[in-house]
Amino acid sequence: MHRIFQHDLHLFSRLSGVLGLPLPSPVEVTVMPTDLTEASPVERRLDTLLRLDSADDGSLLLAIEAQGKKDPAKPASWAYYTAYLWTKYRLPTALLVVCQDRATAEWAERSVSSGPPHLPTLTLRPAVLGPHNMPVITDPDEARADLALTTLSAITHAGDPDIGAILKALSTALRDVPEDVADPIIEFTTQGLEKRPALELWRNLVAVDLSFYTSVISEEIRDEGRAQAHAEAILIILEQRGLTISDDARQRITGCDDPEVLRRWVARAVTVSSVDEIFADEDA
């Protein structure tokens, strides 16, 4: 049933009438290797994989990917993941993509097919969460009712104008919960906001609204806040004294996260005759 296509390499292109499809008329046809076994291990990792078992609907696999930007190579990877999981576990497999901006979410929602338009064969269309469909939770009572959903709301709306209200609702809700419940929520929110401007707002809220927590992550956030304040103080003192601050020196000051070192630099900033003298001991 298949070898005849190897014997006559242009046979497929003459089946347009049979299939009712506008098939291409290739200039050249090449017989490719049929062994699809991976010759060497290729590392492919999903972000998260869940098995959902239901009494009524049976079991399914849910593959979850966090996508920060458009990536033309991703749909092929996602198709590989879902086909592989379907083959390995023999379970229906769904894909959920979580995005932080509308453009990426709209890109991820598009149907992508492995074949040409008239022969799509395998079509991928993941479910997508992002600022376009995630609720904006700004009521502390609503946030308290579902802390994880509110955290996801904050992460997906990290670049939106409403992010401040969401984070304030979350920090307010966390005041009333045990520390072991609050800790992972604080950490997930911190990691999810990454380097966006909202991260600084979240650090301030943790330092003020949740100052009574003594967990490692809470203390780290407060230490980072203190470090930033020290770095800003050093730069202000040097600028007020009229000293020239090179880009390297500025980056070294703002990039330091050791409060003890920064306190030494603050004291030196008052008397040094050049910015380089601040780093004298450390350089030695």
SSE arrangement:
Elements: H1 3-7, H2 16-19, E1 48-54, E2 58-67, H3 74-89, E3 93-99, H4 102-109, E4 112-113, E5 123-124, E6 127-129, H5 140-145, H6 147-156, H7 163-174, H8 179-193, H9 198-209, H10 216-240, H11 247-255, H12 259-269, H13 280-283
Parallel strand pairs: 2-3, 3-6
Antiparallel strand pairs: 1-2, 4-5
Helix pairs in contact: 6-7, 6-8, 7-9, 8-9, 9-10, 10-11, 10-12
Q: What oligomeric state is this?
A: single chain
Number of helices: 13
User: What string, H for helix and E for strand, traces the elements in order?
Assistant: HHEEHEHEEEHHHHHHHHH
The figure for the number of domains is 3
Count of strand segments: 6
Low-confidence stretches: none
State which percent range the strand residues make up: 5-15%
What is the terminal-to-terminal distance?
A: 78 Å
Mean pLDDT: 85
Helix content: 40-55%
Read across the widest sheet, the strand sequence of neighbours is 1-2-3-6
Q: What structural category arises from helix and sheet content?
A: alpha/beta
Q: Biggest β-sheet: count, sense, barrel?
A: 4 strands, mixed
Radius of gyration: 28 Å
Structure description:
The chain is elongated. The chain contains 13 helices and six strands. The termini are far apart. The strands form two sheets. A four-stranded mixed β-sheet has the order 1-2-3-6. Strands 4-5 form a two-stranded antiparallel ribbon. The protein folds into three domains: 48-129, no CATH class; 140-213, no CATH class; 225-283. It is of the alpha/beta class. α6 (147-156) runs parallel beside α8 and α8 (179-193) runs antiparallel to α9 (198-209). It has helices at residues 3-7, 16-19, 74-89, 102-109, 140-145, 147-156, 163-174, 179-193, 198-209, 216-240, 247-255, 259-269, 280-283, and strands spanning 48-54, 58-67, 93-99, 112-113, 123-124, 127-129.
